[in-house]
């Protein structure tokens, strides 16, 4: 089928939400840990982490429009920092549950049953159960005026990962990490390795 | 192991490239089709497509700094449009090969052996072999001054997808789509469905 822009806009709202949220494909689910200026911790599911650069090491992520209270965004703006933890497939149900609308005084860590883990370099708590933990400083906030979505660009301050998960060339062993992959709002997948290809050259 | 920012910056260059490119996880590989003002087609591998909004339907993607010639970016700036095609796992080697540095007068479609497919609404050719084809108009270009990377925000103008791949709630059947997933620069994966979870509610 071929849907034009007008067809998409006239889709039933929930159908459009699932369809357009799915269309960016299957990707790794992360949990974003933050802490407010007064010490309230927060944890949220983020499925839109993207690579921005390796030197300096930069990552981007998308956060929803700050129309409703957005604890992750307000904590990042208050403290200038956050962390990203790859959601292990073994805990995908707990990760999904962090997306429920808990009030600000409830920490999603306790509410869903995930353990905190602290580092001296980032105030926000990491997710203990995650094998890939990234601490970031806010570098730049980009507001998208068309729908008030916010892009957060952060600089990686620290990476915490077992040495056994990284090979001598710097590749991460994602079969061993076993991340939860997510498509759209609710569909979870696992990743199976297919192949590693050589650097592509003009033939 | 725990790597701080200074440790990351002092990693050997190729190791850091693989490591930091991998750290954003496994995600769906897309092929970005464009055409220049004088009609030269181009196809490039993009692994950083992200959801920006469902209404209007917006997608973002990252393109490398325009220091070397970047045909995708220059074509998007010339024509204001581009398309994104989910790379089928059956053709991941051809998709990877589009990342070789072909000169501007060579079309990656022919060079790697992928067929073009045209729509009256978007000038750039789609990838015939892809089952999920998205036509976009450039909405906004965001330059990241720290490393000159460019974020392209586009509005979806059309979606071309077999009706059999979308269920009655708008979910896309990604096991049937069978996208190539990629981590870092060279590691390919496939997706296996685990589960679909209900909308998370405070319990």
Outline the low-pLDDT stretches of chain A.
none
Structural domain count of chain A: 1
Say how many strands of chain A there are. 13
Largest interface: A-B, 105 and 105 residues
Give the terminus-to-terminus CA distance of chain A: 37 Å
Name the CATH superfamily assignment of chain A: Electron Transport, Fmn-binding Protein, Chain A
| Strand arrangement in the largest pleated sheet of chain A | 4-3-7-10-11-6-5
User: What is the CATH topology classification name of chain A?
Assistant: Pnp Oxidase, Chain A
CATH class of chain A: Mainly Beta
Proportion of residues in β-strands of chain A: 35-45%
Structural class call of chain A reads: alpha+beta
Largest sheet of chain A: 7 strands, antiparallel
- DSSP summary: helix tally of chain A: 6
Tell me which oligomeric state these chains represent.
homodimer
Architecture of chain A, CATH level 2?
Answer: Roll
Fold blueprint:
Two copies of one chain form a homodimer.
Chain A: E1 2-4, H1 5-9, H2 13-22, E2 27-28, E3 30-35, E4 41-46, E5 50-54, E6 57-63, H3 71-79, E7 81-86, H4 92-97, H5 108-112, E8 116-119, E9 122-127, E10 133-144, E11 149-160, H6 174-177, E12 181-183, E13 187-196
């Amino acid at each position: 089928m071929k849907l034009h822009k007008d067809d998409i806009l006239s889709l039933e709202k929930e159908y459009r939400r699932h369809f357009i949220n799915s269309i960016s494909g299957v990707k790794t689910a992360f949990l974003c840990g933050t802490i407010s200026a007064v010490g309230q911790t927060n944890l949220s599911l983020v499925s839109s982490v993207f690579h921005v650069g390796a030197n300096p090491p930069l990552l981007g992520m998308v956060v929803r429009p700050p129309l409703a209270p957005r604890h992750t965004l307000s904590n990042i703006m208050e403290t200038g920092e956050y962390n990203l933890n790859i959601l292990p497939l073994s805990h995908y149900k707990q990760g999904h549950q962090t997306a429920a609308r808990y009030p600000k005084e409830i920490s999603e860590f306790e509410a869903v049953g995930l353990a905190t883990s602290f580092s001296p370099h980032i105030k926000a708590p990491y997710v203990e159960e995650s094998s890939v933990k990234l601490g970031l400083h806010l570098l730049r906030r980009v507001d998208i005026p068309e729908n008030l979505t916010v892009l957060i660009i952060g600089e990686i301050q620290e990476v915490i990962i077992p040495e056994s998960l990284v090979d001598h060339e710097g590749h991460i062993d994602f079969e061993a990490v076993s991340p939860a992959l997510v498509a759209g709002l609710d569909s979870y997948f696992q990743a199976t390795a297919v192949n590693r290809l050589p650097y592509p050259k003009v033939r």
